[in-house]
Structures are given as C-alpha cells and as structure tokens.
Batch of 4 targets.
Target 1
Amino acid sequence: MKKLIAALIAAGLMAVALAGCSGASESGGETGGAEAYADALVISEQGYFSAGGTVTEPVEGVYDETTNWQDPTRAGNTMHVDHANVFYQIPANDNKNPIVYLHGAGQSRMGWMTTPDGREGWSEIFLKNGHSAFLVDQPRRGEAGQVSEGPVDTLAGDQAWYTHFRIGRIAPERYEGSQFPEGDAAQDQFFRQMTPNTGEYDQAVIVAAMNEVIRMTYEKTGHKVILMTHSQGGLVGWDVDLQYVSAIIAIEPGYAPSEMMSPGTYAKFMEADEKIPIIFYYGDYIDNGSEDIASTQFWQWSRQSCIDFAEAYNAAGGDATVINLPDEGMTGNSHFLFQEQNNADIAAHVEAWLGERGLN
C-alpha cells in the first residue's frame, strides 16, 4: 500500500512538472510566462469572521435534547443575533493600510466586489494596490441576517431605486452621458444585488457591531483601518469609535454630522485631539438634476451638509475634502459611482488622496 501511495504521489508530481513546462515552446520560448500573470491579484490570506452581536435569553421552558428540532416551542433555546459578518482578503503586497468597507441601504458587501457588467469592483482594485479588504455585511443584512424578530422588508422598489439614486428618470432609461453600465443584462444584475433587511433598522446595533469589526481588524492586522462607507453606511461611519480608524472615505453619505442634527457626533470630530483625514465623493446629476424630482433637492442638501462639515472641520484643524466629480472632469456618475464604467478612474483619485496622507 505504501508503494502504491508513493507511486501516486510521484505521478502527481510528474503531472505538475509537465504542466509547468507546457508554457514553453519547443524552441525554448515562452507562450505565456510570468508576463501573463503580471497583473494577477495574489492573496496571501482570506477568510470570514463574525463580530459583535448578542445572545438571546433562553425561550421559556427546559430544553429537551431528545426531541431537539421536533419541539416546535424551542423551549430552552437561544439565538446568536445582530452581529456583522466579514469576508477578508490580505494581498501578498500588503501595504499595511487595510480598508473596512461598509455598504449602504438595500445592499451587501457584494456591491464593493464587482460591477453590474462584471468588471473589477473597488475591493479588487484596492487589493491590487496593496490594501487588505475587510468587507462587511451589517447586522440584519446579507450573511449577517440572523435576528430575533422580523419583519423582513419585502417592499418593491426597483423603479424608486433607479430614480432616487440618479441612474435615470425611469428605468431602463439612463441619463444622458451616464456611466452606469449599459444594457438589460447589467441592469438585471444590478437589481439582483439588492438584499432586504431581515429586521428593523437599528443604527445603534450596527454601530456596536462595526466597532467590533474595526477592533478585530486592528487586532488581526496590527494597523488602523481606512473606513470606506456608502450611503446609509455613512451614517453609521460617523458614530463608530475612531480609536482604530486612520481615515474615512464617505461615498455619498446621507449627510455629514452637524451641530443641529447630531451635536454629540459633531463634537466628537471637532474636539478630537487627533483629527483623522476625511474625504467625501459625490457624483453627477445633482446640480443638473431634474427639478421636478424631489430627490434632486435631497442630494443637493446632502452634499451641502458635507461641505458645511468640511469647512468647520478644517477650521478646527482637521483635514476634510468634498469631491464633486464633475468638477474633477468625471461626469455621468450616479449614487453607485464605485460600480460604474469609470470606477477605476475614481479609485485612482481615491488612491492618490490616500498617498498624499501616507496611507498607501
């Protein structure tokens, strides 16, 4: 038996060796070689973990192991709920500046990982730049859906998403000059990224879990994190503890902290001894949005709240920048600018900003 196993191992090694030689021609030239993999993403470590959450009190009664699942009352059972779920990847060229990604409403980490037309998402682009990726599904969403009570949000909203987030006036029409991926297939993929809340939205629950995500990421990597948020995730981002955060990149957050709406959060940033750098990104169809669509005024107000915050933060000794992409020569972007046709160009802009602050 040992001889048989040894023979099989030897045969396997020979097959690997032959496969390795298949890239060379008979004349000794390379048919593929290292050049073919020059742009390859090499991952040194990846995995999953959960962070935060609670355990429910046991259901009234005594657990009976002999009936277990057959007992419909679930007497004596508990549930682990309201945690975040994290998928992480650490690249071989790790630059020691990990990025924690937090999605917005109706989405999961998938939005950072790909585009509706199947190109590289931001997590892959920044991984190639050396940033470890820690991709979060917030509590009661995606792979962190375990919750003690519902309801699951099943309200229809494809058309409302499309209009409110400035992809076009009415699906499937896109605004003129739109960077949103074209075609029925891409639009279908976009809508199928959406995922419901499995319970009531509770920002305090999400913030508690995100604090654990950030702490555990710091413990794993030994480095503070760059917190990248989108939309509703931006509201959570303002409330997290900043002890292990090196910078915030807020992609069209609902709004920035203000003295009137969130005085405690506002003071946290303005009075901090160490003020972290913050950058906001906004796309197109805001100044030039349709006046009869109520969302246009909302986005104008949202961006202005960030401008007001940045002015106050900078006056207090901080470092905050609001980027209006059309002013940078990048037009046609919706609320989902990290998924659109020029997402690599916008990512390069972000990377340059990080480099100016020694974060790459």
Target 2
Amino acid sequence: MGLSLVIYPSILDYINSKNNTAIVKSYSESTQTLSNDEINNELEKARTFNEFLAKSSLTDEEENDYKAVMASYPDILNFDDVICSIEIPKINVNLPIYHGGSEEENDEKLKKGCVHLRNTSLPIGGESTHSVISAHSGYPDQVFFDNLEDLEIGDKFTIHMLDKTLTYQVCEINVVDPDDSSKLKIENGKDCVTLVTCYPYSINTHRLCVRGERAENDELTTVATVDEGTDGKEAPHTWWDLVYFSALLILPMLVIYVYTGTPFYPFKVIAKWFIKKIKWFYNLLKKI
C-alpha cells in the first residue's frame, strides 16, 4: 500500500503531462488554420483590451467603452478557452494558459494548467503591458510551477501565441503576501510577464512572483507546430513510454517478491478473499 502511494502521483503526473501536451498541440493546430485577417482581428481586439487597461484615467465617454471591452475578455483569443501556451525550458514546463474567470472557475482550470489573471494585460506583447500567469505548486496530480523557484535572473521563458513566439528574460524575483499586487502593475513603456505561484512549497503563506521582460527570440526558438508525419494526430507513444510504465509495474512486483517470496502474492490474497466471500454468500442463500 505504501509503495502504491509513492507510485500513484508519478503515474498521474505522467498521464496529465501527456494530456497537456495534447492540448498545447491542439491549440497549435487550431491557430495554424487561421487566415492572416483572422489573426489580425484577434490581435486587434487584444490590443484594444490592453490599451484600456494601461490608461491611468478614463473620460466619461471612455467609461462605457471600457466596460464593454472588459466584458468581451472571454471572447478574445479564445480557442477552447486556451489563450496561448507557456514554455520554460529550464524547469521543463510546457503548459496551456486558460482564460481567468471566477474563483470557482479558476480552481477548476488550475487543475489543468496555467490561468491568466483576468484584470492584467493579455499576453500578446507590446509596450505598457504586464501579463500575469498563475499556476499551482505542490498539486498532487501534476507538476505545474513547482520548480519556479529554480529560475534565476537571466533565465528565459516563451509565450506561444497564435503564430508568434514571445521570449521573456527573468529580470526580477519577489516573494510577497497573497494580497500584495504592487509587483503586478503596468509600467509605462515596458513589456512584461510575471509568473505567480504559491510559496513556500506546500506551505503557501506567500506568493512567488517571477517577472520577465521582453527579449529577443533565441535562434532555436520557433512557434510550436504539429509534428511532421503525424497528419495532425496526437504524437504516438514512444519506447520511453513503454519503459516508464514497465518500470512502474515491475518495481512493486520485485519489492513484493523480496518480502513474500513470490511476486504473485497479492493476487493469491485477493483470490482467497474473493473465494471466501463467494462461499459466505452461497451459505447465506442456503439458509434463506
């Protein structure tokens, strides 16, 4: 039983990671089918949203426009609720980013990936923008931003959005109280993305904020695309998948063998229990 508790999270993390990879792939496939006009239309809506957020004050005429634009948020860059994806090579993160919503909606979405903080700039880049992306640490079913604290000043991460790849370089790392939003404000002329997770790990009394500022794309950085030769289908399982699951099956069998002398001991116990229950039920029927 103890061994199962150790192995179970690893199996879930592996399965969920595969699912997130499929979601990122599906997003890439969907956006690649868009025409240039459709892409420009989505970007224009996102830019308008970001421009209103960056305004320090609004005129009476702009007030109604502001409310209308803010209300349109769920419909901007919406591809099955995914806005874009984030890749952090140093900590092996490749996750979808979902639209932010109510607290209950965010709780559900954070079980699947990252969530964009609704009242921050949409992650399309541009001057005077500051997007905030949140994800769990210490979640039992999957690794999300668990290793975010390993990032250092100068490390890079990328946002894959429509047909664009936006690279950000870590320029600031802060630990703040949960209700402290002072590090999330838009700074005039700057293009920033801040990654947020609970901190310390599994204690969650504070928030770790890792800010990146827009940098030049690396030469090897490309927009996530569908693997050639898959015809748009999910990538097939590899030999490493087989090795991984074989190890998960063989390891507990070896441990059981060491302690009981036979790897089939659990099956014998289950069979005896099952036969015992059948006999009990049979005897009960005879008495009726």
Target 3
Amino acid sequence: MFSVLSVSEQTPAAVWPEWLPGLFRDQEVQSQIGNRNSKVKTLEVPVIARLSAVVLLVVAAQASLAQNVVHYIATNANVKYLFATAEPVARLKSGDILDTNTLDCFGGALRKPGDTLSMVKGDNPLTGPFFVEGAEPGDTLAVKILDLQVDGDTGVGSFSPGFGALNGTHYTPVLEPPLTERVWFYHIDHAANTATFKAIDSDFSVKIPMHPFFGCIGVAPAEGEARSSIVPAEFGGNMDSPEASVGNTVYFPVNVKGGLFYIGDGHAAMGDGEIAGSAVEVPLKARVQLSVIKGRTIAWPQFENDDAIMTVGAYRPVDDAVRIAFTELVHWIHKDYGLSDLDAYELLSKVAKIHLNEIVDPNYVVVASIEKKYLPAKKK
C-alpha cells in the first residue's frame, strides 16, 4: 500500500504589514513637559473591533503564504521500473511541494558482505508517477530541488559483469573472459558528510565528500512509449547527473497530460563517467517543488541555478550527445537571451563547460553549460 497526505504548511512567523500600527493612531497620549496631565482623543471605533479586524487580516495574510505539501511514501511494494504512462500515485497543483523518498538502485536488497546482485528484484526502482494539474503536452515542467538527505548509514557500490566503461558489454564485445562481480559497502557519516570507500583486496580506505542527487529523474515519454529505468533520453530518465541536486531547477518537456513525474536511484557521490557502472548508491529523503510553465516548449531536459544554465544530451556515440547538448544550449541562449545562433555558437566556443556524466548506460549523458555572467540580460 502507498500513503499520500496533503497538508498546508503555514509560515510560522506572523505577517505584520507596515500599515498595521495606523489602526491604533486614533488613541494619542501627549505628555506635557512640566506636568503629568495628558489628553486622550476619544476612540472613534471600539478597540475590540479594531483588534478583531487585525486578527482577521493577519490570518488572511498567513493563508495567502500557505504552501501546500503532498507527502508520499515509496516502498518496494509500490515502486515502478519504467518511465511510462501509468496511474498516478498522487496529484499536485502547480507550485505544490512534494515530500517523499526513494529507494536505492538495488531496492535495498544488498545490505551486508556476501549479498549478491542475484538478490536484486530490478534496477532503479522509481517513486511515482506524480500527476501535476494543468500540465499539457507542449508545456514545461519545472522541478526545483529543495532538499535531499541520505536516508541511512550505508551506501553500496557494485560491479556487474557486462556493465561498465572499461570491460566488454553486449554492444562492445571482447574475447577476454568477463570480470567477476563485486559489491562494496560505504559507511555514511552524516555529521562529516562523507562516505568511506574501503578496498576489498587491501586495507586501504578513504573518505569521499557526499553530494546527494537523483540518478533517475524524469517524466513519461511521448508517443505512449515505456522506457526502462536504466535509460536516459529526451524525457530525462537515468541521466546520472550530479546537477540533479539541491539548489538547481530541472526543466522537462511535458509529453502527456499531467506530466507524470518520476524520481529514484539516489546517489551520495559519483565520479565523472560513473565508469564502473554505479555511484555510492543510497536511498534518499527528498523535497521538490513542481511547477508548470505554460507555453514554454523544450525538446530535452535543462538545468538552471543562480549562476548558470545547462542542457542535456543523451545518446551514443558520445559525440552525438555533445552535439545535442550544445545545440540545445545555443537555442536556449537565442530564445531567452537574444543572441543570434551564430553569436551564441561563437561565445560557447570560448566560455562553455562540458560535463561527462556517464558512459555506461544505453545512452551516454553529457551536460553543457554557460555561466550567466557571460550572457546578456534575460529577455522579459
């Protein structure tokens, strides 16, 4: 069974408008120098009536600032393994906040030394989908990542034969025998914000700074497609992008009514490329805000924060992923910042950055970015 609860969280501090003291100015006490006499104007309206009006105004002001929060609990019994059109587990209005959790990519099956990948039910269990009212094909779904917390004291890394950047796979076969399966466990130190790598074949260990992010984040694909939770593509999916972290907003093309938003595959830390096929895999507690941008149409996922705009390319070979990411970035600069395509092309050639997120999934993922300090003011 799944659990859904929608509540309004009030802003705790009372909102006192600047004009509020004026309600009491009809009562004026003037002390006179040299004597203690004072004159008091008669109240035109009883004080009790004024106070009642104040209470009503403050309550109304607080209600206007109330933020609706939808709570949902994911378990192995209700997760999905496809990005697809499916019955939503909860509905949100544009602007609502979602408080939820995700399982690790193994569904919590690997808990101790000796556990094997054969115990895993499926890869990358997904929390969702979530229906956002008002989202229609052609719109953009904005997902502001407000908070991510590693949910537990242990992370997991693994190597699976046939999956990795430096070994034979189904699409890059080799004659050498496959490497053997391995599983590593990482102690999570929340106070120090680190995960500890411990070598299996020696006594070496080292602490790794944590940077929690969603490995999987996306929406239902277009044209009724159902895509595996290990695939990244135009709908988002298994992008393994450290950019899907607190402080960033992710934009997705809306392909179906309601968008149908999914998240999963929490990571505590990951190296560029994710070359052995896994990050420090962890469950997460998550808080995100979902908003619909009407009439803004995009073809691929985008990221944005206060300092930069970023675009995603996901395909094989990796040079095509790079082309997709940079073409989308040129289009974004032209549309929102007013530079011509050729001027944007030239500018990116001088100041752009590129991030190779992963080269192990069915499509490789690249994120291209430019800092906003190099751009004109955004068009209104």
Target 4
Amino acid sequence: MENKEIKDIMENRENNLQATCPVLFPENERAELKDIERSLIKRYRKHIWSKFVKAIKEYNLIEDGDKIAVAISGGKDSLIMAKLFQELKKNGKDNFELEFIAMDPGYHPSIKELIFAVADKIAGDYPCYMCARMRRGSLYAKAKELGCNKLALGHHFNDVIETTMLNLLCAGSFKTMPPKLKAKNFEDMEIIRPLYLIEEEYIIRWMKSTGLMPLNCACMVAAKKIGNKRYQIKDLIENLKKDFKNVDSSIFRAAENVNINLLLGYEINGHKVDFNEKYENDNPFYE
C-alpha cells in the first residue's frame, strides 16, 4: 500500500486515529534501506547517533555478553531504536546479541477486554500505568524465555523530562525515569533506555525523512483519560522554553544535581526519611 493510500485512510473520519495521538506522515517517498541506515550515521550523527552511543557509554547500558531483547511496538521510537542497535553491531560494538520482540498491544477484543478490565479495576480513571506494567511483564517473560538479560525500551529525552514534571506537578514527588532499572519480579533482568539522551524532535525528523510511516497508538482509553495530561506537560515545557533558555536541559540535569542536605525529606530503599530524622541524626542544614 502506497503512502498516499495510508494517509487517506488515516485522515478518514471513520478511521480517525488522530483522536488518540498525532500521526506522523512521511515527507518523502520511501528511501532505500541503505540510505535510511546511512542517514543515522551521517546526517543525524550529532543529534541521534552520537547521543545513542553516549547514553550507552555514560550509563553502562551494554556489557560484554549481554543478550538484549529490543521491544518493538512499531512506533517511531522503537523503530529507530531497532535500527540504531543494528547499526551499532555493524559499526561499533559487537560484544552483545540482539533479539527483536513485539506483542499484540491488546486491541484484539478478548485481550483488550481482559487488560482494560483489570487496569480499570485497579487504577480507576488512570489505567495507563497499570496497563503498561502488565504489558511490560509479558515482554519480560518473553525476553527471559529467549535467554535475554536486558530489555530495551524506546523512551527518549522528552519522555524523561515530561515524567519528571508529571511527578512534580501532579504527584507531588521528585523522581525521574532512570536510564536503566533492575526488574523486581524477574531475576537478573534489567530495563535499559538507550534513547535516553535523544530529543524527540530529531526522531520525528528522521522518521519523516525516511518515507516510512510508523504505527500510531490506537488506545482510546489513553486518549480520553490520561493522554491529555502528558500533552499538557509537553506544551508547558515548550512554553517555558520561550522564556527560560535551555529549560529542558535544566529539568533533565535537576535529577543529577539533587542536594539531599537541603531536602525536607526523601525515600531510599523503601524507607522514608523525614526532615526531623534527617536534621537530628544525619546532616543538619548549614548556612
């Protein structure tokens, strides 16, 4: 099916997937595979390839002998992550193995009914977090079955700072999305986020330039219940950038520069330390 046909379907009111989240339409005819791959290394070297490699090195995301399950949803982020891993094996490190895995996101009627019934029962008006946890559990299980010790997810720089702001403004807590995380329920399994330093703007630019059309999220629950909150945070950050230079980078760096001495309280390994405990027994405030 040609891009024009797909675009016509997407824009048809009876198939209005843009009600959920923005649809990316290609700006060009589909490029040759070799040109798509070369563009990551050449044209987008500064903003995509170099930051991909930097995140892997800075956060030690790949180690000798790793077998990494790359989770592919068909969206722009997971597609570029898959290609970056392939290019890394061809042009850089080759000390690890890859498995590419995908799952039915739950739109088959019987599966959708189960997922949303459980998520709605547990999480009420905000089922997305619980739904994501359930889907991630399935990915963990498949990765384990394939002998993988790491699961790569396609969260990027903007996901990180938006999560930080969501927690701050909506949950009254200061926490962010870490570049890697040990799984609680799957022994010797880690999540890694190799797009951690890559800005979404450049992922979108690359995707449009390839002539490819990524899959769009079709979850109406997300659109109606929680999707708008993240878009509000995204818009807030864009507006802040007009008045505060590099505010997105400042939000990101804030999670690297936390001064525990000047906090009213914090939590570590499940133990909450309040102000008085910290003041009397740990590090009192100094002028």
